[in-house]
Structures are given as C-alpha cells and as structure tokens.
Amino acid sequence: MRLTKPVFRGDRRSFLRSGAGVLGVGGLLLSAPSLLLARQPWERLDVVRELLDGSEPSTTGIDLDLPLVSEDGSSVSLSVSVDSPMSDDDYVESIHVFGAGNPNPEIAAFRLTPAAGKAVVATRVRLNESQTVIAVARTSRGEMKVATRDVRVTVSGCLSRNGDSSAMGLDNPRVRVPPNPQAGNPAEILTLINHPMETGLREGEDGELIPKRIVERFQVELDGDPVFEAELYQAVSANPYLRFHVKPRAGELRFSWTEDTGETVEVTETLDPA
Amino acid sequence: MSHITLVLWFALGVGLVFGVVGQRTGFCLTGGLRDWLLDQDGRRVRAFALASAVALVGTQTLEALGYVSLGRSLYLQPSFSWLLLPLGGLLFGYGMVAANGCGARSLVLLASGNLRAFVVLICLAIGAYMVLSGLLAPLRLWLAALSSVAPPVAPLSLSGWLGQYVGAVPGRWIAVSLVALPLLAFSLGNARFRHSPRDWLGGVLIGGLVPVGWFITGYLGADDFDPVRLVSLTFVAPIGDSVQYVMLSTGTALDFGVTVVAGVLAGSLVAALLSRSFHLQGFDSPQRMLRSMAGGLLMGVGGGLALGCSVGQGLTGMSTLGLGSFLAIGGILLGAVLGLRGPLRLPRL
Lengths: 274, 349
Prior knowledge:
The complex is a heterodimer. By secondary structure, chain A is mostly beta strands. Chain A is 15% helix and 39% strand. In chain A, the strands form two sheets. Chain A has a nine-stranded mixed sheet with strand order 2-8-7-4-5-12-11-14-15, covered by helices on one side. Chain A is globular. By secondary structure, chain B is mostly helical. Chain B has one domain. Chain B has a two-stranded antiparallel ribbon. In chain B, 58% of the residues are buried. At the A-B interface, strand 10 of A face helix 7 and helix 12 of B.
C-alpha cells in the first residue's frame, strides 16, 4: 500500500500536467510571446515570482551546491554562496531557498548583515522527489541573483534508519566557534540542535497525522547586533544544521532557536579573535 | 585536515592493503569453497574463516572499548527482511561461482589484467543499482515491506539476544566465543593451513581491516555536526557508487566505500606489476562472457537485496553479530555450494 501511493500520485500529476498541456496549447495561441518567455524554472514558481517582483535576476555571482543524485531525500546537503564584498554599502541582505517539487516550496530564508563577512550558508534539507532547487539572493543595492540546481532523489537500500533520537522539543543545542579566529578573516560557525522538525504531513504509527512542530527561527547576535538569521520551514531536515560566517571581533555571540510553539533556547559563546 | 579528508586517506590505505594482500594471497571465498569441495584443498576457505574470526574479535573489542557504537550500522537495524537477506545471499553466492569470484576478488583480478573481471564488475554495478535505486527497487521495497520482522531484541544481534538473559557484557563475549571458536577451530585446527603462511597471514590481515574500517568511520569520522556514515569493508554498493562517481563526480562527494574500491584497484595493480603477475586475459568464448555477465548481475542484484557481499556480510556484517547477517551468510554459502555441486552446478572453468 505504501509503495503504490507515490506511484499513483505521480500518475495523477502527469495526468494534470497533460491536461494543463491541452489548455496551454489554447493559451499559447492567445499569448504566445509571454508563455515563450516563461521558461526559467524560477518563473514557474509563484512564490519566487512574487519575491522577484518583476525584476530581472542575474544568474552570475551565486552558486547553489547540492549533490546531483541523493539517495536520502530526508537529508540533502545544501550550500549557497554569493560573491559579495559584504561591506556596509554592498552586502547580501537575504537568500531564499525553494524546492519546486516539495508540498510547500519554501525551504528556508536567510537574512545576512555586513557583520557576517561572507555570504556562504549551508544546511540540510528534505526533498520530496527529484526536482529543481532554486536560490534567490537579494543584495542591499536591490540586485537579485538566482541559481538553480536539479537534484535526482532515489530510494536507497543502504541507509540505516538512525534510530529516532529526536526528543520532542528543542534539545541539546551545539555550536562550534573557532577558538582563535583571524581578525579580518570571516570565521565559520557550525550549529546544530536536536529537533524532529515534524512536517505535519506525516502519519504516526496510529495512522493519525503527527501535528506540525518545527524550529521556525534561528538568530545570531554579536553583542546585541544582528549577524545572521534563518527562517526555517518544514523542508529543513530533522536536527536542523546551519553553517554561516561571522566577521571576528571580540564580543559575545548569542544564538537562539525558536520553535513554532514559541519556546526558545539560547546559547552564548565568546568570540575571541587572535 | 577535516575529519572527512582524514577518513578518505585512511580508506585509501585500507583499500591498498586489501589490494596488495588479496593479490598476493588469492584471498577468495569462491575459490576457497571450490578448492575445498572439489579439490580437497581447504586452505583458502580456512583463510576466509580465520579472517571472519579476526574481524569479529577485533570489532567487538573495539566496541567494548567504546570507540564505535555499531548500533548505528546497517547490520543492526531494528528490523530486517527474513526473505530478502537469505534470498539475496543465495543469488549472490550462485552468482559468485558463475562469475568465478566475488566483487572484491574481481577488483583484484581486474587490476591483475583479467578483463573478464571488468565485465563482471560493470554488470555487478548495474545489478546493484537496479535493485538499490533503479528498476527493481520498487520490487525490493515491496518484498521488504511484506517480509520485514522486528524481533524485540535491541540491538538485533546475537550478543543483544543473549544479553537479554545473561547481561550485556557476558552476552557479548559468549556470543563472540560461540561464533569465533568454531571458526578458529576450523581454520587453525588444520595443520596444512597452519603451515601455509600465505593463507593464514592473508586471513589475519584482511580480517583485521574490518575493525580498522569501523574505527575509521566510527571514530575518526565522528563529528557532532557532520558525522561520516558508519561503515566498514563491503563491495556491492561501493562498486556501483564507484561507477557512478566516475560519471558524476562534479555533483557527488567521495565516500569511504568508493575510496576503498580505488585503493583495492591501485594496491593490487602495484602488487601485480611488482610480482610480474600482470597478464592481460579476455574471454575465449561468447558463452564464457555470458556466464560472467550473468554472474555479475546476480551478484549485484543479490548483494543489493542481502545488504552485502561475501566480504560485506561474511566479514563485516558477521563482525557486528547482526542476526540478519547470519541469514545472509547462510544464503551466500548455500548459493555457492549449489553452484559447485548438485543438479544446479555450473561447469568448471
């Protein structure tokens, strides 16, 4: 039963797609020019079109890295890097990541500041099926940059179901800050927290939907100044992992994770540049 | 050096040692069973048994000392398929007789100039991927769902099961003795084997690589933020991964298994060249080629279903004492014996 479900869904989708195709041919005759232009993967996604708000994004200076083939759709490494001086008058303000083939296309949104020093962010995400992943970056000067990557998601026979160690709530937050970062060289920070990131789409053993429960916000401040912030959606893997940068200056880094229940966990670390 | 780079360098070392030792000693379960059943020469099969005992004792000692936690490995998952493990083993065992060597042996043979092994390996890789993620994967998942059992034992191993009655620590060592002592008696009890250093040394070295592999991925590869998957020597999925890696390396990351495969090829190539035993060989008939193709495909499909090959289940799976591994090894041995004797036996090459 479990096996036939996705197959059936695929059939329905392709049916819908062919139905849409028939309508599309009719539409094409009426509005051929606009349809011919609407070819880029990001133009097919409403949320991305909204974010771009009519501006023409550039596809250079941004790199989205995911494996071409992943045999574990529940945890796919993703990293985005944007070429930017990250200076006070020219920095990357936000990076949004979308998965066109997920039930909810939003994966995560990262907000950066010049204090980050480097626009490189990594996490692990859930991909429902083979699809195109899209990253959209906006700079402080209003430029938009887009990168896409096609990922094939397969099933696998060699996966160990790593026993559900996930406690229900926010548990065991971990942070790795380099002990003596070089001043002037953005320091790489790793963070991880135990959390099931329940999507609200999954059935428990009793056949009932498990209610949605996710970490929806992660914030980092250096002596009270915002450095980095992430909005997470259901498509971020269990035990959310985030890698980002901070420009070293002596001070106290405060990390906080907020659940959709409102519960918050904080960790502080001293940043002590060499 | 990041922990991942460290793991890969050590994996290369493991592969090189396996390649050199495999090339110089002819370590091979297929050949061992054939020599033993048909030629009354049990040295090579005893080398395999000794390797299995060394792998088991080494691995269990490693876990008892707290370096690795095998519960995270593939072999000790909370459920297994009572159907696919023995069935896959059976196909693998028969396939390795048809192909005249298992996956690891074929890597060594290829690097010694045996181009028949190339055909075996390509078919093995395709077969493995067909059943792991390709055409046959839906069938595998369906059968696995039908036949999955989850006995109330944690971890699902002989030691875990005995541990329920006598406590975890005695359970582990009683289980180790129950398995290792017969293997040691079978191998070291034979005078001819004891007087053949090539064989016992090969068994000790290759068996010893299994705990080394666990140590590399489980201890050197441990990281709070980005742990390496806990694995040790196995050759079905990694041969498929290696073929995929050479084609998609810009979009995939090197892992332990692929690096070991590369190391085995390099190590046995060097050993073959230095010992002047590198000879190019091909097929002398299309029938022989068909047999190699079928053998490779059976090994890939069977190994994919059984979660491992003669090395992956016979040495590595066995070293965890996983109950599923016993089923898989039973299947592999039965399949190999069917290929060597009885009504289904394959003609001798």
